[in-house]
Amino acid sequence: MKVLIVDDSTATRLILAGMFRDMGCDVLEAENGEEALKCIDSGEVHLAIVDWNMPVMDGLELVNEVRQREECKDIKIIMVTTETDIDKVGKAIDAGANEYIMKPFTKDMVLDKMRLIGIQI
Amino acid sequence: MEIITLDNFRFVADLLHQKTGIVLSDEKVYFVETRLSDLLRNEGIGSIEELIETIRRGRDAALEKKVLESLTTNETYFFRDVAPFEALRKVVLPDIIQRRQGERRICIWSLACATGQEAYSIAMVIREHFPQLASWDLKIIGADYSREVLEKAKSGTYSQFEVNRGLPVSYLLKYFIKEGDRWLLKDSVRTLTEFVEFNLLDSRYSLPTPDIVFLRNVMIYFDLETKKKILANVKNTMRRDGYLFLGTAETTLNIDNSLERHVFEDNCACYRIGQ
Ligand SMILES: C[S@@+](CC[C@H](N)C(=O)[O-])C[C@H]1O[C@@H](n2cnc3c(N)ncnc32)[C@H](O)[C@@H]1O
After folding, report:
1. Contact check, Cβ <8 Å, A102/B82
2. Which residues of A1-121 form beta strands (DSSP E)?
3. What is the pTM of this model?
4. What is the CATH number of domain A2-113?
């Protein structure tokens, strides 16, 4: 399974990338939405873990962009962000994110949410 | 941290076993020291020696209860293991609804409910998928030995950490409101539930007769005799055509072989009284 991690924090990317590699996934990393789109264009991403606040193109814009592309409709998206406002959560889901985790997160949280959207590893 | 003598440890372990059924092996000394040290701080008591001395004198029932509560493990989360809630939605509730068309009454137990996430998960499934039950007499009863966890369950209020675990975001948006940094369940869900203090060791279960019982992740703490007693009690109290869910690591095998195991998707099992 190919997982794309989109976060401008190197530390967060490191943690998430390590976690998914341990589970045997192929991991791609991007620092912002624009880079993420390039990764998505370059090949089969199954799951994207997306931060909200990033320079250049933020997470919400990215989700909107991805959901407008017919060929990307099967990509599962989990937002992992410090935004905890209920309206913001609603916005991300309306835009087409499949799940939402409020930072700080744990591995169990990510695994539980993956299971909820039908990804078993 | 405070140190406990072996003698005092064994005293506490015996008391815990006698009152709750929980078995603490001798390796659990460190666990007991940690939990009791926290309790000392909260209660303003000087040392474990002093605490145990008070309990041994047997005059402070409230303190004794707090000691025993502090030694329970209360970990739980929304939609734990997912599969039982899927089985509930797809098979168990539709069947029970069919069987109860006449009485229009359903009672579900969440035994050893800890801080209530299991009971509320069931309530959310019902609100989400069974609107026809709105006019039925329906109760989900969460029951636990520990008063502390029950207080929290009753409040229906959870931290960000807790709503992050296992709860589908669509349910968070639909059934919770945010108050400061806490998440509060809406009344539409809360009114389906009721939380009561209850001991699984009681010789008779004085709760309303259940159609469905969740008894998950608590039997693992008990010895065989206790498990037998509890399963017999549950069996005697639940409706003959009811359903019993145990935790993923728990079975009735070698405890009560008369219960029939039914396996659903994802290897999720539930138990029924042989018809
Ligand atoms: C690990 S929690 C299980 C929570 C939930 N059922 C679940 O599966 O997520 C175990 C709970 O069992 C309760 N408990 C332990 N002994 C008990 C007894 N004798 N009677 C009632 N509750 C008990 C503890 O207080 C604790 O809250």
Report:
1. no
2. 2-6, 26-30, 47-50, 76-81, 99-102
3. 0.95
4. 3.40.50.2300
